Amino acid sequence: MIRVENVCKTFGKKTVLKDISVTLEAGKTNLIIGRSGSGKTVLLKSIVGLYGVDSGSIYYADTDITKLDFNELKYLRQEVGMLFQGGALFDSQTVLENIMFPLNMFSNMTKKEKIKRVAFCLDRVNLSGVGKLYPAEISGGMNKRVAIARAIALNPKYLLCDEPNSGLDPVTSILIDKLISEITKEFNMTTVINTHDMNSVMEIGENVMFINEGEKCWEGSKDNIFTSDNEHLNHFVFASELLNKIRAIKK
User: Fold this and answer.
1) How far apart are CA 104 and CA 53, in angstroms?
2) CB 31, CB 209: distance < 8 Å
3) Rounded to whole angstroms, how far apart are CA atoms 58 and 110?
4) Label partner for 151 (CA 20 to 30 A): which of 16, 166, 186, 188?
C-alpha cells in the first residue's frame, strides 16, 4: 500500500499539486486520471521519488520516502517496478538483455538464475521465445509487454505505470490493461497507473482518482464514475468518450 498525505509541489511560482491525499491499495489497479497538465505525471514522479515534494508525506507501507536520503531511497526502489511511457527499452540490447538489466543492477543472482527469471517474466507476458530479438524487430505492443516483463523482473511490491497504452491501438491497449490487472492480483502488487484513457478506466479502474488543476477532485471506482455529479469529472469523461468515438469512426 502507498499513502499520499497532504502533498504539495511547486515549480517556481506555479503550484502543480495542491494538498493531495490518497490511499493506493495493494492488489488493486489504482488509476490517476486527468487532462494534460493536470498534475498527474508530477504526482506519479513524486510517488516514485523522482521529484521531491514541498510538503506532505508519501508512505510505502510504514516508510515515509520524503524522509529518506539518496541511498535509502535507492534501496527502496528495488521494490518498485516502473513502466515508462513508450516502454523506454534499450534499442541496442536484446529483449533478454533489457529484462536482465535490473537484475544486473540490483540482484545477486547467478547468470543462470537471471536467465531463468527472464524466461519466467517473458512467459508471464506471453512472449516466450523472443529473448534474442531486438526491440526494433518486434511490434509496439510486444515492446510494451517486454517493458512490463522488465518492470516485474525483481518481483516488486509496487508497480508504477506512466501512460501504459500510449501509442497503442485499442485492441492492444485492452490486452495491456488486462495483463497489468492480472499481474497486479497475481503478485498482490500496489499498482498505480497514470492515464487519460477512459477505455482503461472502464476496463480496470478499481480505484480511480481524478485530478483537476493540481487538486484531487473526485475518487471512486469505474462503477460509479458515470453517475458522479462532479462537473469537472463529467466534462473530462464525456469529452474523452466523444474523442474515442470520433477516432473509431475515422478508423
Assistant:
1) 30
2) yes
3) 34
4) 16
The closest alpha carbon to 152, from 110, 74, 98, belongs to 98
Residues comprising the chain, all counted: 251
C-beta atoms surrounding 19 within 10 Å: 14
What spatial distance separates the first Cα and last Cα of the chain, rounded to whole Å?
Answer: 40
**3-class DSSP assignment, residue 19:** strand
Contact 225, 233 (CB under 8 A): yes
> Which amino acid appears at position 119 of this protein?
A
Alpha carbon distance 59, 88 (integer Å): 27
Distance of CA 206 to the CA centre of its chain: 14
**192 near 22, Cβ under 8 Å?**
no
Q: How far apart are CA 120 and CA 115, in angstroms?
A: 9
From the number of C-beta atoms within 10 Å of its C-beta (0-12, 13-18, 19+), residue 164 rates as buried
pLDDT tens for the 251 residues of the chain, in order:
999 999 999 999 999 999 999 999 999 999 999 988 889 999 999 999 989 999 999 999 999 999 999 889 888 888 999 888 766 889 999 999 999 999 998 888 999 999 999 999 999 999 998 999 999 999 988 999 999 999 999 999 999 999 888 888 888 889 899 999 999 999 999 999 999 888 888 889 999 999 999 999 999 988 888 888 888 888 888 765 554 554 454 45
Architecture in CATH of 2-87+156-250: 3-Layer(aba) Sandwich (3.40)
Output phi, psi for 169, to 5 deg.
-75, 160
